[in-house]
Specification:
Distance between the termini: 46 Å
Strand content: 35-45%
Order of helices and strands: EEEEEEEH
Low-confidence stretches: 89-94
Number of strands: 7
Helix content: 10-25%
Radius of gyration: 14 Å
Shape: globular
Mean pLDDT: 85
Length: about 90
């Protein structure tokens, strides 16, 4: 599935905007659907491109921890999970 034209190969976070990097190199700004499931070692994300409802992208993230060979380093997985649960936790200056 990672070889397909619309496969998500990576996720990036820039200025509190999540981007899906597709297998063809395109970066698409996405939002996370409420249908996504976030777990301690496994996260199933349904990503919706910002500004459209035409297509959704699904990703499976597995933490690479405690002998489990996942597709995301443990520290990165933890940071993404916290961001998904809490959103922008950085205070804004007045």
């Amino acid at each position: 599935m990672l070889q397909g034209k619309f496969a998500v190969g990576a996720l990036r976070l820039d200025d509190e905007q999540l981007y899906a990097e597709l297998s063809d190199g395109r970066l698409i700004p996405v939002s996370v659907s409420p249908a996504s499931r976030i777990g301690s070692r496994l996260t199933l994300l349904k990503l919706c491109p910002v500004g459209t409802r035409v297509r959704t992208y699904s990703t499976i993230l597995l933490a690479d921890a405690n002998g489990t060979h996942g597709n995301v380093p443990e520290a990165e997985f933890r940071r993404l999970r916290v961001w998904l649960r809490l959103g922008n936790s950085q205070p804004t200056s007045a």
